[in-house]
Amino acid sequence: MASASASASARARPASTAPILDTRQDDESPISQLTRHWINERHAPDILPAQEDLLASLLDHIRRQSDAVQLLRGEPSASEEEHIRIMLVQMEVERVKFIVRSYVRTRLFKIEKFARFIMTDTTIQTRITTAERAHASRHAHLTDRHFHTSVLQSLPETQSHLDDTPIFMPPMITKPDDSRAVFVHALRNCPPIRFHEDLTLEMKRGHISLMPFSFIEQLLVRGDVELL
Fold first, then answer.
1. Please, are residues 114 and 120 in contact by the beta-carbon 8 Å criterion?
2. Which stretches does DSSP call E strand in 15-146?
3. What single-letter DSSP state applies at residue 24?
4. GO CC annotation: what is one (predicted)?
């Protein structure tokens, strides 16, 4: 009977050799990919394409790993080695959660900053998720209503619009500044970058340069370069 009970307990407990969290350090691991997208998003002046599938995959992975940890923590016969392993996994899960939260917060900051521009530009709408577009719409609506209630309703009709483009004045709708300079690191050999007819730059793998974001945006989307 004791042997049968021990066998049943062994079957119920997750095998200690099963990988709890993928901690590979190569560039193909989901964690490494999200880390790179997070850094790129932080340094890019524009909103980059959303990594919805990657984010969903990592969140599902975190949920499954957390469930596995809870099972191991509730196992009274777990060894000291397994307890240490559980602690390491929990630390790694918290690290991934931090990256996920920071990535999402960075995108939300940009979406709220450029909310009114997002609602008028179809190109940038293709880079955001359905939920992000809904958030931008709500934020733009609330901002417009606040401005109208507090200021615009007291102004003459000709001066009460938020989409005016006055001459010699900055536009009233904030939009991304693609001319802002960024530091770029080439992950592989890139095609020549043409600044104008007499000036081109060939970025080899490992090369670091400072240039306007607009010239390397497509290279960044393809994964040929990363921002620093």
1. no
2. none
3. -
4. GINS complex
Instruction: Please check whether residue 69 is in contact with residue 89, taking contact to mean a CB–CB distance below 8 angstroms.
Output: yes
Q: Does residue 226 sit in helix, strand or coil?
A: strand
By the 8 A CB rule, do 185 and 228 touch? yes
CB 16 within 8 A of CB 69: no
Amino acid at 137: S
Q: Would you give the DSSP letter of residue 191?
A: P
Q: What is the Cα–Cα distance from 168 to 227, expressed in whole angstroms?
A: 33
CATH of 177-228, one of 3.40.50.2300, 3.90.1300.10, 3.40.50.300, 3.40.5.60: 3.40.5.60
Domains in the chain: boundaries: 177-228
* 25, HSE (Cβ side, Cα atoms, 13 Å): 0
Instruction: Print pLDDT tens along the chain (228 aa).
Output: 444 444 444 444 444 434 444 444 445 689 999 999 999 999 999 999 999 999 999 999 999 988 888 887 777 777 888 888 888 988 999 999 999 999 999 999 999 999 999 999 999 999 999 999 999 999 999 998 888 888 877 777 777 677 766 666 677 789 999 999 999 999 999 999 999 888 999 999 999 999 999 999 999 999 999 999
Q: How many CB atoms lie within 10 A of CB 40?
A: 21
Task: Note whether 34 and 54 are within 8 A (CB).
Answer: yes
- Non-local CB neighbours of 25 within 8 Å, separated by 6+ positions: 32
State how far the Cα of 165 lies from the Cα of 173, in Å rounded to an integer.
9
